[in-house]
Amino acid sequence: MLFFHLSGYVWHYPKEKTAKMVSIPRDTRVEIAGRGEKDKINHAHAFGGPDMTIETVENFLNVPVDYYVKANFEGFKSVIDDLNGVQVDVPFDFWEYSDEKHGKKIYFEEGSMELDGEEALAYVRMRRFDSDFGRSDRQKQVIQAAISKVFTAKGLFKVDEIAGHLGDNISTNLRAGELFSLQRQFSDMSSNKIETLKFNGEDARINGVYYFEPYEEKRERHCIYSSTTFKSYFNFIWGLTSSPDVFYGQILEIHM
Asked: What is the DSSP letter of 191?
């Protein structure tokens, strides 16, 4: 499996029926847990799998991560195909290679498009024409579209089919009961209730290697509000009005 992106957190607010989603750029330079040195955050998975990835993200944001979901390309495509595709708003014309056939180009035209699994994967992988931030925006766009479809009346009937296809392509430490609770919580929440947030930072090149450097001063200010003062922490960063529900916790999604 190829590790191509570390997609950040999803925070759930059951009473408010909203969610916050943060993407951590794959090239973000952070200290890797247990190694005592800084590297790209996506290397944490290569060095130590989900456990090291979780610890690295926890140290970076000073927020505990309760669960993780790890999916590969086939798992991603199967979900989209089981949903009979997703509709996205393409920001500009571009193309990307297919992962299924060498040299095959998939073209995307500005405006609304319906994408199948193969097309959706190419859509979220592309960064040659903009940046990792553009790719992050497209990933969140597809995730929101998929969530919106899953929890329609037709989508709910496909949950078992989706779960069957994901078996060999996804791993998680979420238990069946916790998954059911999440499904129940999201079943009446529309995708427009999912707010996407970004890190601020700057490009850097160290010893010839490209990194994304988050603004350290702002991150340090964020970390003053540790996980022991959850409500203050989240109010300070995101301007929220309530603290997360501990039962649902935080989920780290790792794309392979």
From this structure: G
pLDDT at 52 over 70: yes
192 burial via Cβ count (<10 Å: 0-12, 13-18, 19+):
exposed
Q: Where are the domains of the chain?
A: 1-72+169-256, 82-165
**Residue 43 CB contacts under 8 Å (≥ 6 apart), including other chains:** 32
Task: Give CA–CA dist 162/78, Å, rounded.
Answer: 7
pTM above 0.90, yes or no: no
Q: Which of 33-42, 64-73, 96-105 has the lowest mean pLDDT?
A: 64-73
Burial of 108 (C-beta count, 10 Å sphere; 0-12/13-18/19+): buried
- CA–CA distance, 152 with 211 (Å, rounded to integer): 40
Please say if the pLDDT value at position 22 is more than 70. yes
According to DSSP, residue 192 is labeled G
The CATH code of the domain at 1-72+169-256 is 3.30.420.590
3-state SS, residue 128: coil
Torsion sign, CA atoms 155, 157, 159, 163: negative
Residue 18 near residue 195 (C-beta atoms within 8 A): yes
Alpha-carbon Rg for the chain, nearest whole angstrom, is 18
- Cα torsion 171, 176, 181, 185: sign: positive
Sign of CA dihedral 176, 180, 183, 185: negative
Residue 209 CA neighbour count, 13 Å, CB half = 10
* CA–CA gap between residue 24 and residue 244 (Å, rounded): 20
> Does 130 have pLDDT greater than 50?
yes
In this structure, whether the domain defined by 82-165 belongs to CATH 3.40.630.190 is answered with yes
